[in-house]
Amino acid sequence: MVTLLYLSTCTTGACPKNNEFILTRERPDSTVETYFEIFCLGWVSRTQEMLFILILALTLTAGLAGDFSQTLCEHVPTIDLGLWVAKVHSSEPLVITKISSQHGGDIVLSRDDGKYFEIQGRAEYNVTTLCLTVQGLYRGDFRPYVTMEVNILPQSEARAKRATEVWSLASVPQTTDIKTLMHGFEPYHHLWGQGELSATTKHSSSPALTVHYPKGSYAVTPQRGAGFMTTPTNFPDGVTSLILKYDVYFENFGFGWGGKLPGLYGGDKTEGAFKCSGGNNPGTCFSLRLMWRENGDGEVYAYIPREHQASDFEHRPDIEINYSYGHSLMRGAIRFRSGSWQTVTEEVHLNTPQQANGRVKFCLKHGSEAEVCKEATRLNFRNHADYFLRGMMFSTFFGGSSSTHFAAPNDCHTYFRNFALIIPSNTVVG
């Protein structure tokens, strides 16, 4: 592909003597790599005595070539509210960004090898034809040709694969005593912001955990929100798949430039598991908190290893890279709202150590509206076999560390209720 990029001017002497710029390699966005070979051609203007340069760039695109969307259907024996597994083959490498079904139920991408995928789900009603719509991006000049075969799991096996709730907390005591208030989260670690925590029935029939953000507060101000880590007493060791759910209510929010929300965390069995935040990513932990961004845009905010990620990790359209702090996964896939309750679900499946086959799904449901979900796959969360999911990192404040951009625009609150940690006994939760 040859593209005339731009016209530019420069003073005499700006071009190399041979009238050819040094070859440069740039990446103007997260989805396309371009290679520029730039030449200078010029002439001297008698009146301005300036050299006008016409810059012509030959752009060779070596990234993702186009959008892909295809609906795949297959006749199957009656799916009686059971589990199914779809095996999808693509003729060309494909980056899947969304999978949807006409039949309801939960869907997860359980295997992604670039050209071979396994998608698992549970039908919400009886069907004899299973249809999936697969969307994504493809590389190269040839549009992928995609096929699907479906296997149905027996009812006995489907029932065995349902999820197990290991901890839940619907509400907190309405008290001013912090120890009593926090009792349902025990054992918890590294509690901060006690002065901003309380309980109220202002927006619910039972007391909700309430967090206060003073106007002008952000990551480094003394009063800025609250945080702690919790690993419930009956939480087992060796957890590689986990779901976190809670309801959240934003009151009097301007969302500003962004802020943190609770998410899952993990790592080793020591204090090292608590350290992945605030620009620290020591390799003993990983954290997958959520964030709100401008206008309520949501994302997964990931402190994960730099090593052993997929080859296209830095160029994916669903990831904004930040090695100094956390990476933004799926920014804008969902949108939080101020002034109403919404249910958050985060589901994490750890990778095989040092392999980029982990995944995280982020869902949001507003009232009676349909739940909106987005999933990021082919990720490395851990490099060691004894690093597991450890529980919930409750962390919420405005920031970022810049008062100019991240300070809370208003005196505002969040309210939390109906916490749950759920361990899926397989990759599908029903």
From TrEMBL:
Keyword Methyltransferase applies: no
Pfam families in the cross-refs: Polysacc_lyase_14
Record's keyword annotation contains Nucleus: no
GO MF entry, a single one: lyase activity
Swiss-Prot/TrEMBL keywords: Lyase
Domain Polysaccharide lyase as annotated: residue spans: 202-419
Name of the protein in its database record: Alginate lyase
